[in-house]
Recover the amino acids of this structure.
């Protein structure tokens, strides 16, 4: 589904009442629709529409989602409500692409499970394969099998952790781009402050 089907209608929204006051808003709209981030998101949306799910999945990663969110937030202009409505549509498209990417991962995992169940079903319905499988299990079986317990550490990027601290967990695990960009700014500011404090401490120690 195209984001903007009637470009002329959109342009008229900027110039219907007061041409001089809406000129700045029209300029912002032009800047948005010619920007790299706009072309990237609309391009991915087209890939999604055409069924190129691998392309979308490979592009929408935790890192790129943060970067795209930051770029969209930089283009926010609250003084222009019509423009902001359009920018919000682009932001919503980015969220939709993230959700589509997550669902694609779930579908891929389910397909692997189905394939595994089909393989098990083939063994159970074939006596020769079943006997061969049992024989293989007996050969590999030990009285006291080696056991190892490992805990995989859960890692979450600081930007997403800051988002949770500031706004709570997002509904459906779909991160709001503007909020994520604000959380990213907070993390960057905290890192800069920590670096400045460390530099000041080092300078004091050298005196």
């Amino acid at each position: 589904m195209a984001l903007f089907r009637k470009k002329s209608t959109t342009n008229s929204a900027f110039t219907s009442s007061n041409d001089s006051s809406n000129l700045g808003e029209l300029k912002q709209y032009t800047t948005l629709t010619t920007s790299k981030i706009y072309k990237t998101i609309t391009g991915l949306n087209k890939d999604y529409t055409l069924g190129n799910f691998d392309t979308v999945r490979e592009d929408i990663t935790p890192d790129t989602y943060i970067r795209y969110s930051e770029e969209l937030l930089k283009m926010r202009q609250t003084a222009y409500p019509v423009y902001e409505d359009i920018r919000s549509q682009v932001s919503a498209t980015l969220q939709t692409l993230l959700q589509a990417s997550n669902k694609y991962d779930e579908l891929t995992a389910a397909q692997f499970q189905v394939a595994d169940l089909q393989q098990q079903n083939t063994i159970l319905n074939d006596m020769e394969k079943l006997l061969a499988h049992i024989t293989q299990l007996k050969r590999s079986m030990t009285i006291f099998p080696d056991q190892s317990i490992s805990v995989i550490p859960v890692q979450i990027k600081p930007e997403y952790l800051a988002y949770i601290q500031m706004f709570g967990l997002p509904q459906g695990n779909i991160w709001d781009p503007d909020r994520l960009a604000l959380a990213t700014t907070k993390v960057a500011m905290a890192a800069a402050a920590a670096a400045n404090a460390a530099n000041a401490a080092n300078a004091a120690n050298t005196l």
Observations:
- The chain has one domain: 7-153.
- Residues 81-124 form the longest helix (44 residues).
- Residues 7-153 form one domain.
- The radius of gyration is 26 Å.
